[in-house]
Amino acid sequence: MANAWRRDNKSPKFLKLTFATTLIILLSYFLFLRPNPTFMPMADTHFLYSPKIAPFDCLASPQAHPIVANLVEGLSHPFIYSLSDFGSLPDKPHKNIVRLLKGKPFRKPDISATIQEVLMKLRRDGGSDVYVVDVGANVGMASFAAAVMGFKVLSFEPVMENLQRICDGIWLNRVGDLVTVFAAAASDRDGNINFHKLVGRLDNSAVSAAGAKLAFKSNEEIELQVRSIPLDDVISDSTRVLLMKIDVQGWELHVLKGASKLLSRKGNEAPYLIYEEDERLLQASNSSAKEIRNFLHTVGYHHCKQRGTDAHCTKTG
Predict the structure, then answer these.
(1) Pairing mode, strands 191-198 and 221-229
(2) Cβ atoms of residues 199 and 219 within 8 Å
(3) Residue 11 CB-half CA count within 13 A
């Protein structure tokens, strides 16, 4: 990344100063100049089965800082999201910080494009009261892709730093009435679970310690306990889920088992399913792609296609 500075023929000192100034402006806006967030509309929570878990309260959460946020390029429905990992500052900043300093939008996340593409096709079958469920929401790149299209979203994310960035995005995209966040890892049991946070690559944090460090062995790993809950304990029978996306670094089978009631719905009432199917990550969590496919067959999902490392599954083909 250091070579990138030389290719642009920019002074590192100048870029560092520009970067610092940008952060100060962004931080000042969020802490002092933005309108009072007390008046931000909140999402409807009639979908809750029981008071087992309350939605995460963004207004009561400490404000993360500094804030580095930008618009995403190349989407039919663009949105803004906030970074939780900055890279190694100032010498090797995150690639999107480099783009920001060049006056460019953030790079389009593949999952955001996929979510919007699928929802465009499904939209004709949905009404105004359908939900998208985002499990392993990270900083909201799938959640906001759906919300800016007008869909209600339930986002599940256990890492506090990511939760704070989701809260940034809820404000920046004005979707407080559409996105409900849960500070939890979706799983197949209600309680607490050991979780491994990967410093510098929070998007690779995982329940499995081996899975968290699979691609980034040199990064520091922090073990902590987080809340876990089955999706069936949160989503009521009357709540229609149009699409469910799962990206939990190998814990996918446990999430699916905890949503067996939801996934057992008939025909078009069952959600379109997108989940990460990375065999190395699955094995690190003592499961496999075959085991997941076998489970999905038991709840009626017989049509699955591979797209990169993701599987797309439906009941109707």
Answers:
(1) antiparallel
(2) yes
(3) 4
pLDDT tens column, 187-213: 999 999 988 877 777 776 767 766 666
Give the list of residues 6+ apart from residue 144 with CB closer than 8 angstroms, or none. Answer: 79, 80, 81, 112, 169, 173, 175, 179
Separation of alpha carbons 68 and 96, rounded Å: 9
> Taking the alpha carbons of 289, 291, 296, 301 in that order, is the dihedral positive or negative?
positive
Please provide the DSSP assignment of 177-205 as one string. Answer: TTEEEE-SEE-SSSEEEEEEEETT-GGG-
Reported as half-sphere exposure (CB side, CA atoms, 13 A), residue 302 has a value of 6
User: What tens digit of pLDDT does each residue of 15-40 get?
Assistant: 444 454 444 444 444 444 444 444 45
CA dihedral sign of residues 89, 98, 1, 21: negative
- Average the pLDDT over each of 4-18, 129-143, 148-162 and give the range with the smallest value: 4-18
Q: How confident is the model over 250-295, as pLDDT tens digits?
A: 999 999 999 999 999 999 999 999 999 999 989 988 999 999 999 9
Q: In Å, how far from its chain's centre is CA 17?
A: 31
Residue type, 262: L
**H or E element at residue 119:** helix 110-122
Q: Supply 261's token pair.
A: 């009631």
Tokens standing for 45?
Answer: 């929570």
